[in-house]
Design brief:
The structure is a single chain. This protein has two domains: about 260 residues, TIM Barrel (Alpha-Beta Barrel), CATH 3.20.20; about 60 residues, Putative flavin oxidoreducatase, domain 2 (Non-ribosomal Peptide Synthetase Peptidyl Carrier Protein, Chain A, Orthogonal Bundle). The strands form two sheets. Strands 3, 4, 5, 6, 7, 8, 9, 10 and 11 form a nine-stranded parallel beta sheet that branches. The N terminus is likely disordered. It is α/β, with parallel strands linked by helices. The two termini are about 30 Å apart. It has 13 helices and eleven strands. Helices cover about 45% and strands about 15% of the residues. GO terms for molecular function: flavin adenine dinucleotide binding; tRNA binding; tRNA dihydrouridine synthase activity. It comes from Bythopirellula polymerisocia. Its EC number is 1.3.1.-.
Length: about 350
């Protein structure tokens, strides 16, 4: 039987680590998630604390270049990046080394980001089959190495990192080999999601497979990702698997305070309590205000539907709330639905 949090929180379980020259403290990272980890979400996470490095949604490098050539506003996914506190990572994706290097250089020089992360893990069809990017590139280690080398050269001294999956399928797991390619090409850290591309988000993350990778890395840190939805699981990741850091993803969408709880747990401190439902409701309204500040109330209300559903997840009455909040189109409707249907118990 695994020990309880009370039994393990007497001493720190993990220490800060470096990505290049950047200190990651606490060693807990917020994962980039398309459609969710925008400025408003990052601001909520930052207010709670506990994330040693925050990240944007992944940015399509080719789309960035096209917007730049058209002298249009840069991608919405870079909303707030120039002004918000550091450290902050921006994740980019494509399959053309020169395009990724060009965008990486702009992010490092113009935006002054702390880390440029390259996505080699996204399993969705639009990225893999249509664009031959994301986890599709796990089948082409030489191409990955070329991409990383060019982005590293373009971004220096800003560190460049890579995020991968275990492989394309369970029958073709090659993360240990890919890890050596990533390190050899000059990346400053490697994050591994413990599923294959074919798994999508089904089943459980394989942390034993993640841990196997560490012995193949000589100088860069290993960050594990997958299924970390409680402080206890973060504690277990550091206690039982050979990782330097962890990355929390989907669980933070309905619990943005999870980073603070996990950081306290690994430091051996008392773990903050979950917010009350009343506090959660106010937090959601604060999130709504942040979204509307950027996109206006019309678009902001539509965008907030999915975030509002996250806040109610796992609560009694969540289904009824989701049914109603998923149709709102005006601020008045949003506030009415929140008052009438947000779970109270």
């Amino acid at each position: 039987m695994l020990p309880t949090l009370e039994e393990v929180t007497c001493l720190p379980l993990a220490k800060p680590f470096y990505i290049g020259p950047l200190l990651i403290d606490p060693p807990i990272l917020q994962a980039p998630m398309a459609g969710f980890t925008n400025f408003a979400f990052r601001q909520i996470v930052r207010e709670f604390g506990g994330a040693g490095l925050l990240a944007t949604e992944m940015v399509n490098a080719r789309g960035f270049v096209w917007l730049d050539e058209q002298e249009a506003e840069h991608p919405d996914r870079l909303w707030g990046v120039a002004e918000e506190p550091r450290p902050l990572a921006v994740q980019i994706w494509d399959n053309e080394p020169a395009t990724l290097a060009k965008v990486g250089a702009r992010l490092a020089d113009e935006y002054g980001v702390s880390v440029v992360d390259i996505n080699f893990g996204c399993p969705v069809r639009q990225v893999t089959q249509k664009a031959h990017s994301g986890s599709y590139l796990l089948k082409h280690p030489d191409r990955m190495g070329e991409i990383i080398e060019q982005v590293v050269a373009a971004c220096t001294p800003t560190p460049v990192t890579a995020k991968i999956r275990l492989g394309c399928t369970r029958e073709s797991i090659n993360a240990c080999d890919i890890a050596q390619v990533v390190e050899g090409a000059g990346a400053a850290a490697l994050t591994v999601h413990g599923r294959t591309a074919a798994d999508m988000f089904r089943g459980s993350a394989d942390w034993d497979r993640i841990a196997e990778i560490k012995v193949h890395l000589k100088r860069i840190p290993l960050i594990g990702n997958g299924d970390l939805d409680t402080p206890q699981k973060v504690v277990d990741a550091f206690r039982h698997y050979n990782v330097d850091g962890v990355m929390i993803a989907r669980a933070s969408l309905n619990k943005p305070w999870l980073f603070a709880q996990a950081a306290a747990a690994v430091r051996g401190e008392s773990i903050p309590l979950d917010p009350t439902l009343a506090e959660e409701k106010q937090l959601m309204l604060h999130h709504y205000e942040l979204v509307c500040e950027r996109f206006g109330v019309e678009k902001g209300t539509l965008l907030m539907r999915k975030f509002a559903c996250c806040y109610a997840q796992g609560r009694r009455g969540a289904r009824e709330f989701r049914k109603h909040v998923g149709t709102v189109i005006t601020p008045e409707e949003f506030y009415r639905v929140v008052e009438s249907f947000f779970p109270e118990g």
